[in-house]
Amino acid sequence: MLNKKTIAFLGAGSMAEAMISGIVTTGKIQKNQIIVTNRRNKARLKQLEDTYGITTVTNVDLNFENIDIIILAMKPTDAETTLQSIKNKLLPHHLILSVLAGVTTSFIEKKLPTGQQVIRVMPNTSSMIGESATAISPGKHTTKQNISYAKELLQCIGEVYHIPEEKMDIFTGIAGSGPAYFYYLMEHMEKEGLKAGLNEELTRQLIAQTMMGAAKMIQEQDKTPALLRENVTSPNGTTEAGLAALQMYGGGKAISQAIKHAAHRSKEMSSQLEQAIGKKYNTETI
Known about the structure:
Blueprint: E1 7-10, H1 14-26, E2 34-38, H2 42-52, E3 55-58, E4 69-72, H3 79-86, E5 95-98, H4 105-111, E6 117-122, E7 132-138, H5 144-154, E8 158-162, H6 168-176, H7 178-195, H8 200-220, H9 225-231, H10 238-248, H11 251-285
Helix pairs in contact: 6-11, 7-8
């Protein structure tokens, strides 16, 4: 049961905070079950402790014997250093959840004791309000029981999707980075509303409501996005004019390219990290 598990975040950045906020808000996990640590930024730890009522400690003071689930939430470039620092402190029961973009479960497993249970996780920042689309890809040693625990925990921050790890890059391009695409679209919609004389608060709210309504139509109607678009597009009407402009200026292509570039970057980051570690290893062993 999760209500008996202690969860430690290694890393105190924006993604860690988003997840902590979502988890704490549900009330399914008590604040005293959550520990956060980072390497040196004590002011950041104090901020999180004051805001969410969770426990914070420095890296050296973290007691691994009292932890059940460890969430790797540092920068991907710090993964090697962190894994080296914790590998001799891990116990067989520890479940490792990694939210590190581009870092594979096999990479993590190679750096940790044989048989360590690892799950790769890709949430998004909507975790903060319990509306994340989160993917999980278990490593080869993870038990069904711990996969169930991971799902239960991550359902505190939104919907959870179990996918093959080779699909994690495209998931990252769509859902991991996706909120930023929508915010970018909303920025431009807001600018046009303000130019036309609408006040800022009204413009922002009507855009958010419009987007939320469209999303709920997708969730609740058994219809494709293409069909829903066609249903709202009257011949020679306003929507048709707007869609024609999107097509003329490459709106659809831009969206596709955004997803492809983000997915490619996720894959590229994984390759670069493994190459960098390989070079370091070869240099040290020559």
